[in-house]
Automatic annotation (TrEMBL):
One of its GO terms (molecular function) is oxidoreductase activity. This is Enoyl reductase (ER) domain-containing protein. It comes from the Eukaryota. GO terms for cellular component: mitochondrion. InterPro entries: ADH-like_N, ER, GroES-like_sf, NAD(P)-bd_dom_sf, YIM1/Zinc_Alcohol_DH_Fams. The chain crosses the membrane at residues 21-42, 48-69. Residues 88-437 form the Enoyl reductase (ER) domain. Keywords: Membrane, Transmembrane, Transmembrane helix. It comes from Chironomus riparius.
Length: 440
């Protein structure tokens, strides 16, 4: 037994000795290799630079490790009405998004009091303009595509002004503004916009009424310009407005009537009293629950809309189409005067939404080159048949409001928590005017 214990102790100590010898041998060989590198591969006069490089690398390595181990600070968030995917209006809901910051010295930060949800926002939730928007946002902010804030126009109070702003706006001023379909929406507690997009809110209306006008008002002004109708040229003109109870239709009805034109509008029975109060001379009403089927049923020749036009036997100088239709409006040409025209006061279809991989690459190159060209010449790029959303048009609308030529038409006002109900009302065929989200 004693012999066995001595034998095991000898074997164990022998193994430790062998292990120590092996370790010492490895360390000796490494030192020898290092010495050979310094003597044969690195000149002695470069040893200083090698040591400096090793020290610098260690220092930056430690700094990078400290940066990785830092405590992350969550970005401040705010309430926004946004769509979380391009799968339809059911995905528009109340979200929490990051607070915006001034991107340039000419930007202005606005605390939103009210924002308008439009049919364009519903189309955006189905993917309208997603390819162009994705490309432009990758250049501007690099922020995630979703959630995408909706709301094309808003009103609020100036919260901060860039140091180089020449707008004359100050903190506390009441303003209104609009955004295009390829830009981030305005239905948030705070928004940032360039000073050229912001105008002073008319003093005669509240925030909810002011939020209903900027985008749709600019759409109406562009439509009037296309139709060559103005305060002087509208006198005696016969004008037909399809869907006169839409937000754009309500604006067109008032302006053309005040300018001396003869206005005929189409609408459902619920909105007839409102359209009549806005100044329509004739109203073509529809009692069917589905407003659009009155325009196009099994045969356009048998539709209620066609029968109404035939019964009147009137030729129109201008026909305004204020909502997107799924069929051709060519049949309306028979009811135009020889020099009459059809004006689409609605956003054009974006072909880029249907592009494949190759066409998307070509489209991105086109957008990049166009951005470079417009930057060189100092002009704002125009990406589609979009309204010109600038403070000049907003000032024109403010003048109409202050002169009591134009009134706001707000159908429903919702809280941000009721975003789903607001969107459902927008797509309802019985809505009148604008639908507003209030952030007060």
């Amino acid at each position: 037994m004693v012999f066995l214990f001595q034998y095991c102790s000898f074997k164990f100590s022998y193994k430790i000795e062998i292990t120590a010898r092996t370790t010492f041998s490895i360390i000796f060989n490494l030192l020898t290799i290092t010495k050979m590198i310094f003597y044969f591969l690195v000149a002695r006069n470069n040893t200083y630079f090698v040591l400096v490089g090793l020290g610098t690398g260690c220092m930056f390595g430690c700094m990078f490790g400290v940066w990785l181990a830092r405590k992350t600070i969550a970005n401040p968030i705010m309430k926004s009405v946004a769509c979380v995917s391009y799968y339809g209006s059911d995905n528009v809901t109340l979200c929490k998004t990051n607070l915006p910051h001034l991107r340039s010295s000419s930007d202005i930060l606005v605390r939103v009091r009210a924002a308008a949800i439009t049919r364009l926002d519903v189309e955006i939730s189905h993917g309208y303009g997603k390819i162009l928007r994705r490309i432009i946002q990758s250049y501007n902010s690099g922020s995630p595509e979703m959630p995408l804030v909706v709301g094309r126009s808003c009103s609020g109070v100036v919260e901060n002004v860039g140091k180089d702003s020449k707008s004359g706006l100050e903190i506390g001023d009441e303003v209104w503004l609009a955004s295009n379909f390829y830009e981030i929406g305005l239905a948030s507690q705070l928004v940032v916009a360039h000073e050229s997009r912001i105008g002073r809110k008319p003093v005669l209306i509240g925030f909810e009424g002011a939020a209903s006008l900027p985008y749709d008002g600019c759409m109406a002004l562009i439509a009037l310009k296309k139709a060559k109708l103005s305060e002087n040229s509208s006198i005696g003109k016969k004008v037909l407005i399809q869907d006169g109870c839409s937000a754009v239709g309500c604006i067109l009805t008032q302006l053309i009537k005040k300018w001396g034109g003869y206005v005929v509008v189409t609408c459902h029975q619920r909105s007839a009293p409102v359209v009549n109060a806005l100044g329509a001379d004739e109203i073509i009403t529809f009692s069917n629950d589905s407003f659009e089927t009155n325009f196009y049923e099994k045969s356009i020749e048998q539709s209620t809309f066609m029968n109404e036009l035939l019964s009147r036997q009137v030729k129109y100088d201008v026909v305004f189409i204020t909502t997107r239709l799924n069929y051709s409006t060519k049949f309306i040409e028979r009811f135009l005067t020889p020099h009459g025209t059809i004006v689409h006061a609605v956003e054009s279809i974006m072909p880029s939404d249907e592009y494949g991989i190759f066409m998307r690459m070509m489209f991105k190159i086109y957008v990049t080159l166009k951005r470079m060209g417009t930057t060189v010449f100092g002009v704002e790029p125009k990406w589609a048949d979009e309204p010109h959303l600038c403070h000049n048009n907003l000032d024109i609308l403010a003048g109409y409001i202050n002169d009591e030529i134009l009134n706001t038409v707000v159908d429903q006002v919702y809280n941000p928590q009721e975003a789903e109900r607001a969107v459902a009302h927008v797509i309802s065929e019985k809505r009148i005017g604008s639908t507003i989200i209030t952030f007060r």
